[in-house]
Amino acid sequence: MIKRTKTRKIYIGSVAIGGGAPISVQSMTNTDTRDVQATLEQIKRVADAGCDIIRCAVPDEKAAKCLCEICEASPLPVIADIHFRGELALLSLDADIKGLRINPGNLENPEDIARIAEKAGDKNVPIRVGVNAGSLSKKWREEIHQGTCTVEEAMVESALVHVRLLEKQGFELIKIALKSSHVPTTIQAYRLMANRCDYPFHVGITEAGTPRIGIVKSCVGIGALLSEGLGDTLRVSLTADPEQEVFVGINILQSLGLREQGTEIISCPMCGRMEINLLPLVEKVEQHLAKETIPIKVAVMGCIVNGPGEAREADVGIAGGKGSGALFRGGEIVRSVPEEELFTALAAEIDKIIEEKKK
Amino acid sequence: MIKRTKTRKIYIGSVAIGGGAPISVQSMTNTDTRDVQATLEQIKRVADAGCDIIRCAVPDEKAAKCLCEICEASPLPVIADIHFRGELALLSLDADIKGLRINPGNLENPEDIARIAEKAGDKNVPIRVGVNAGSLSKKWREEIHQGTCTVEEAMVESALVHVRLLEKQGFELIKIALKSSHVPTTIQAYRLMANRCDYPFHVGITEAGTPRIGIVKSCVGIGALLSEGLGDTLRVSLTADPEQEVFVGINILQSLGLREQGTEIISCPMCGRMEINLLPLVEKVEQHLAKETIPIKVAVMGCIVNGPGEAREADVGIAGGKGSGALFRGGEIVRSVPEEELFTALAAEIDKIIEEKKK
């Protein structure tokens, strides 16, 4: 249903980005990259969580050298995250990295960029031009301060300077990110950039904070961009475990119909119309389906207003009544079930459907 | 920064909705409306959480009669939620309710609608025409089934039938909602309706589920609509306490710059570049600010890449280094602080700023 903006296609390892490819989910390790074992263990955990691409910070030469071992054993394509020093990008390219990220705010020397473009081009490794509002270079901060451009314009122009430098070397395996911790600034920056080029976009809200507020900011910002058709790969940035970033990223895509749902539970907010005790029932169903990978849609509804309708659209569902519930399957009422047996009856139907789907 | 779509203005009690008024946050009680005391206690809790408008289910005559006492003592304007039976709307209008919600999917008799419009008009009480995809009437379900219209079109047309019936009675204090548990369906329905009328919109994702997934769906859906300029009042529907709905609703508005921030904490996702232990520090700052109402922006950043930039934009902040951090205030480095003293130093600066702002 979402009409995605047409972009060019690049590949991070075997993961296609842009050109209509499925939107991929990225995360970043927060282990010390120089601790190869801890980093690889974390990469395996985020891979299990469903992550498509992982990025590692490269703060120094030792970290760059450790990338060789990390890339060799990583189940996910690895992107090297470079700031300040171009030679760290060149060194990282000696490892089997599948992508580079450079920051125009702190890597400005055109000769450095030219050298990086040449080596990345030889190795067919795409480069993300990743601008952060928090690390714009002095030139752009001054322009903003003087009022000659907005933050969003500075972000876009700053990225385009790098894009032109890369193109000058004949390098076009480019991806662009324009992140701010302020959601409307981020949205506006990507909207402006969409009118200026057709490179794929990596979208996200940077420094979104702890899960409590960071999930809201990320979902609002990334959700708004995706619903406008902007974004080819995403990262949710949270002050939390990277696995949690991945879960939220996948949930954003699923909620917009941009990735297949695994299990889906529809449940109502329990108003004064409800005559059964819904919350423990929903929690039990959630637990029952926690490890399930077969796509199944279950509706757990408190009353007859939207209950039958939602339960009809689901594979299986219940709609609560007075001390009992109606069990629905494939749009039909199967039977009425006393409240105390609702979970057992629903779980049995769920298991039956999953068995059938597996065949 | 968001350009809001121009709509007419109505009032729910003293809360303006539409016509450029601030976007209000609604919730719904999940107590039994016939239990006046429990309902009033819950209304007081959601009012304390920052809710602007509360809605109560009216499943029967007794609930309608209890509204008198509830409305008299409620700190928030009360909306009566009506399904199936028009006489419950008429009875509710005898109480001092400030709004009515009717559902075109289950209240279809034009004579009923005419009577409700007449009495609501006499009392100057606005009516929300609230369509849910889960409770579309048989006629529309059949049309969808036969492929003669999409779900979104059915939702819009179903609402417009009611709108025309109300207008026929000279009643125009109308608000519209078009909710589905499917996010893209909801977004598309509101987009279609925005081309058909200029009544204010109540936006939300219905039956979004438990907080884990419901927050993501609500933020993505409501965030996408608001970022397009659609939506004059909102409700986050969660299988959870109504207070939590209110917190998430307020956070959505704040993240889009549509409501003033109280305290704001910017914190980074802690990559392999970080050399201080950030998470406990962020958690302590969050706790320190938990009850604060003075607007203050604090940046807690792990490293020098975006650290100084974000800390500069904040009222106060730290950017981590090796075993220490730089304390920033109003864009200037105040001093370097050893890691073990970072929280104490930051908290002292925060308290100082809050004291100054209070004066």
Termini separation of chain A:
30 Å
Main beta sheet of chain A, described? 8 strands, parallel
Please identify, by name, the CATH architecture of the largest domain in chain A: Alpha-Beta Barrel
**Strand order across the biggest sheet of chain A?**
8-7-6-5-4-3-10-9
Compute the number of helices of chain A: 12
Q: Work out the strand percent of chain A.
A: 15-25%
CATH class of the largest domain in chain A: Alpha Beta
Number of strands of chain A: 15
CATH superfamily of the largest domain in chain A: Dihydropteroate synthase-like
Oligomer kind: homodimer
- In CATH, the topology of the largest domain in chain A is named TIM Barrel
Q: How much helical structure, as a percent, in the residues of chain A?
A: 40-55%
Total of domains of chain A:
2
Catalogue the unreliable spans of chain A. Answer: none
Largest interface, chains and sizes: A-B, 87 and 86 residues
